[in-house]
Amino acid sequence: MRFSADEWLALHELHAEYAAVLDARELDRWPALFTEACSYKLQSRENHDRGLPLCILHLDSRAMLHDRVYGARETIYHDPYVQRHVGGPPRLLAREPGEPGDTLVTETPVIVVRTKRDAMPEILVAGRYLDRVVPTADGLRFAQRWLIFDNDLLANSIVDPA
Amino acid sequence: MRFSADEWLALHELHAEYAAVLDARELDRWPALFTEACSYKLQSRENHDRGLPLCILHLDSRAMLHDRVYGARETIYHDPYVQRHVGGPPRLLAREPGEPGDTLVTETPVIVVRTKRDAMPEILVAGRYLDRVVPTADGLRFAQRWLIFDNDLLANSIVDPA
Amino acid sequence: MRFSADEWLALHELHAEYAAVLDARELDRWPALFTEACSYKLQSRENHDRGLPLCILHLDSRAMLHDRVYGARETIYHDPYVQRHVGGPPRLLAREPGEPGDTLVTETPVIVVRTKRDAMPEILVAGRYLDRVVPTADGLRFAQRWLIFDNDLLANSIVDPA
Question: For a designed S-S bond to B87, which of A143, B110, B117, C145 qualifies (C-beta 3.0 to 4.6 A apart)?
């Protein structure tokens, strides 16, 4: 199962925008990359593979994403850090026909590197995104973005979305 | 020398499938990504650059790949870990005309991140793939995939193919 | 804002070549990837974001790039290491119409992994490239390549260009 060239370019535009927004910590722009009803999840591979519900974060509307941004910005005290997302090529798992265009079900490997002040970069998360991407009037958006991380141990709590 | 858009999409489909199979530890699906006669090698950069034959692993048929999978699964006792492959863009080194299609000789940078239980992710391998990719009735397949790793020191023996 | 398929392929050819040249330490081939007048900068994110001029390295002609290569090769004594560049998808920030083709202003996340002899790979730099890429008779070339790195701490001085 293969992307068309147009899908490839549009999907990478979305992926690159997503990474850039988080890596620049422009969190206010993060929710706009999702559809109004959506599913954002941050879950360990172990729980995902066993079908267990427990996860670090589960947000299911754009309003909840905004709320999380507010929380990360205003209410959580933490050691400052910046993120850097680097990913592998996406893989098309399924294509669901629809209007105005197909929904793309994809899987994309990712590592998130975290850098704190006066410290060397370290890998915060290794894992993969499980996404459902849909066409909207504003371009492709995430109806689902789940980050399933390999590491059951997390280096301190994750504050920003990843 | 440049890929066509079709080659780019087909090659990334193969690369993404390869990474997904190993990262999900679905090792039984690994040999099917190679041609029947093939060359899989895991070799240090130092030995590769000097033309020395010594390498960690050298398998030259799909049957040997199956044998290695059996070994990794059934006979080797080791501390469990999972892999995550993240790569840079492939580079076209040569194109060899043929039927039903050209053989693509490519080079692709890669890092393999390893995560053990209750531990943070760490870089297991940094290096590059040297591949020969050929069209078959089932799509593109590896006639050659050599992982040339930069690190002459390896964090314990590598058990799974990488 | 989106790349055309041709731009995507041409840009990745340049990116892959750039990484391959540095990772193979074929430094003599590095300046040829830039235009005659050019800007190469290695700067911390903190200084870049504040508009401060201080940076690790700033070279603004191909001749200066050659000079730096000579320096890295002949005059600096250092613990040998090799690099491995792995990047995310590029993002098109602006397109400036021109002849014989548009200038592409892009941003690309990158991590550079460094491996020393008898040591495991480690992340040397996490950051992003801020590029201006222009068409020339020899294909796309960098009129600007700035590596803005997240880590204000650097693991020893960087010797080779990155």
Answer: B110
